Amino acid sequence: MKRQKKRQQGVYGKEERLFDGMIYIVLFLVLALMVYPLIYVVSCSFSDPLLVLRGEIRLLPRGFHLDSYAAVLKENKLLRGYMNTILYTVAGTLINILLTTTGAYALSCENLRGRKMITRFIIFTMLFSGGLIPTYIVVSNLNLLNTMWSIVLPNAVSVTNFIIMKSSFENGIPKDLKEAARVEGCSNIGVFTKIVLPLSKSIIAVMVIFYSVGHWNEYFNALLYITDKAKQPLQVILRDILISNELTEMMGNVNQLNSETRAMIAEGMKYSTIVLSSLPMILLYPFFQKYFVKGVMVGSVKG
Amino acid sequence: MRKKIKNLDLYLLLLPTILYFVIFRYIPILGIQIAFKDYIPVVGIFDSKWADPLFKHFTRFFNGYYSGRLITNTLLLSFGQLLFGFPIPVLLALLLNEVRSKRVKKFAQTITYAPHFISVVVVVGLLDSLLNVRNGLLNTLLVSWGVLQEPVEFLTSPFWFKPLYILSGIWQEAGWGAVVYMAALAGVDQQLYEAAKVDGAGRLKRIWHVTLPGIASTMITMLILNCGKVMNVGYEKVYLMQNALNISSSDVISTYVYTTGILKSQFSFSTAVNLFNSVINTILILVVNKISRKVSETSLW
Fold first, then answer.
1. DSSP H helical segments within B56-136, as ranges?
2. Considering only residues 144 to 163 of chain B, which have any Cβ-Cβ distance to chain A shorter than 8 Å?
3. Most buried in the list A117, A198, A277, B106, measured by CB within 10 Å?
4. B contacts of A127 (beta carbons < 8 Å)
5. B80 with B166: CB under 8 angstroms?
């Protein structure tokens, strides 16, 4: 309290104020640089596609248009990708959380025999892994190719998240509480569901974010394991649109348009798809900002 | 007796996790043996014949035309990433830490880690729309300001590939990387700052003598983790940024493993290439960990 008072009185010297001013200038430049590409994309998505195509957008939208959004929402391929991604993200995150919490809880119980060995067995996979091809062979031999499981199962547990979870269970929950519950006759699972889980809401929220962002943005596993176009997630379709420029071909069904108009629509759609595909994750994170710092802290304590 | 049954439920809770690690992490490790075999999918991993000579896939790689360029590109890209990608989050955290207003600080943090939540596909798409030759923003600006006569072919030039890869990586991850340091800084005792002030230390001196030591062990941990990734240039972004014109600079081991292994079905050969990569990786992380344990008593295990 005393310290705060002193601060509020604010007896800063000239030098201090100059330094503060410099800090704000540098900060402003850094932020401007970071946020500019994002503003640019949003502006392009709302602009007249012709002006976008000519490269005439600088910062703010010009010739306000919602046509590109309307065009995107009419594109079945994109909508299907969206649905697939939602499915993979929800199912994948559920499995992630289920395995991570149960496994980490079991290993956080000190009376479990062999817990050190099992923990080492898990951490070792961070150090050395089978790699792309052997994993692909396993997935293919299990007949998982072209199913949702090929996306969801091979990354069912992230070792980093697992360790964060485990150390949170070990250090974040008072030992007396667990002991007391045991004395009262609670089983291990009872302690888990009645005490540990309810007290770990914030760390679980962090895990949900970590895992679901991973699933939402995942494209390479889908590229590897899903060849069936109907099952491809959003990111793979985005890749075709943004990088391979397949949009103009995709719009074969609107062949009454000439190629110039098509190129124009395609250019505008690029930006609106970027916005629509990134929006859910961007919107998600400010809500969880306070949890993030907590989660990262738990992780950094353990290293 | 009762205790034994009690622990049985814990083992049951653990079982799915163990199964996952056995099936999706350890069986692939066993599968590495195909690097020393002539793997035929219908015959299977275990029944395929041993290669003759045993190391033939490795010698083929090292004698091959591309091995030099693959290793050079992988190393350049990852050391570049380490060299520039490691200090910037630290600097960003130091900058944010000096901001007095809590609201500004929070706002700034929110903006700096927004890019982390964007997918690599979108990031590479962004690069395309900002830098392409037709109507890319940067080229349009530079030409209209008269800095350039002709637009630069950023996306298809071998020269620009590596800087763009590294810079876009910094743009995307610097803010996120700074979160760890911000968390560590939250734990620095404020009285240390007061004491330094009493001793007459200016802002820069306080940063140097109080703030930096406060995050030193976090920095070392992050450095070890980053070193472990040195040979581990992710294929995701490289593969997206790669094209026929910049391939001489963008061909790295991981993308090569993907293209020869999955697209050309040379399973044994590409597993051998990957094994070479991961062995170096593992050695690196072990060595760095050991050094840091000796020098600073901070280590991962």
1. 56-63, 67-85, 87-98, 102-113, 120-131
2. none
3. A277
4. 282, 285-286
5. yes
Q: What is the pLDDT of residues B99-127, one digit of tens each?
A: 888 889 888 988 888 898 899 999 998 99
- In this structure, how many other beta carbons lie within 10 angstroms of the beta carbon of residue A228? 10
CB-nearest partner of B27 from A122, A138, A219:
A138
Q: Which of residues 50-89 of B touch A (CB under 8 A)?
A: none
Inter-helix orientation angle A159-171/A115-127, to 10°: 150
From the list B257, B17, B278, B239, the residue with the least C-alpha distance to B120 is: B239
Q: Decide if B119 and A188 are in contact by the 8 Å CB cutoff.
A: no
Q: Mark yes or no for CB contact B17/A224 under 8 Å.
A: no
B195 and A CB contact within 8 Å: no
Average pLDDT, chain A: 83
- B82: its two tokens: 């380490």
DSSP for A132-166?
HHHHHHHHHHTT-TTSTHHHHSTTS--HHHHHHHH
Least confident stretch, A17-31, A122-136, B116-130, B287-301:
B287-301
Q: Is A219 on the interface with B (CB under 8 A)?
A: yes
Domain limits, CATH 1.10.3720.10, in chain A: 76-230+288-302
What pLDDT does residue A302 have?
42
Closest partner residue to A23 among B95, B115, B239, by Cβ?
B95
**Interface residue B1 vs chain A (CB under 8 A):** no
pLDDT of res. A267 = 78
| Domain A76-230+288-302 CATH class label | mainly alpha
| Chain A contact present for B183, CB below 8 A | yes
Token output for A114: 């062999």
Cα–Cα distance, A247 to A240 (Å, whole number): 7
DSSP A253-291: GGTTS-HHHHHHHHHHHHHHHHHHHHHHHHHHGGGGHHH
Q: Which domains does chain B have, with CATH numbers?
A: 1-54 (no CATH), 66-296 (1.10.3720.10)
Q: Is B11 on the interface with A (CB under 8 A)?
A: yes
In whole angstroms, give the CA distance from residue A285 to residue A86. 17
Burial annotation B202-241 (CB, 10 A radius, 16+ → b, else e): ebeebbeebbeebbebbbbbbebbbbbbbbbbbbbbbbbb
Q: Which residues contact B13 (CB under 8 A, 6 or more apart)?
A: A102, A103, A105, A106, A188, A189, A192
Q: What is the number of other CB atoms lying within 10 angstroms of the CB of residue B133? A: 13
Model confidence pLDDT, tens digit, residues B128-181: 888 888 778 888 888 888 888 888 888 888 999 999 999 999 999 898 888 888
Residues in chain B: 301
List the single residue in A35, A41, A187 with the smallest CB-CB distance to B126: A41
Q: Write the pLDDT tens digit of every residue in A292-303.
A: 666 555 554 443
Question: Which conformational region is residue B150 in: left (phi greater than 0), alpha (psi within -120 to 50 degrees), or beta?
Answer: beta
Q: Is A251 on the interface with B (CB under 8 A)?
A: no
What's the pLDDT score for residue A202? 82
Cβ contact B13–A103 (<8 Å): yes
Question: Residues of chain A with pLDDT > 70: what percent?
Answer: 85
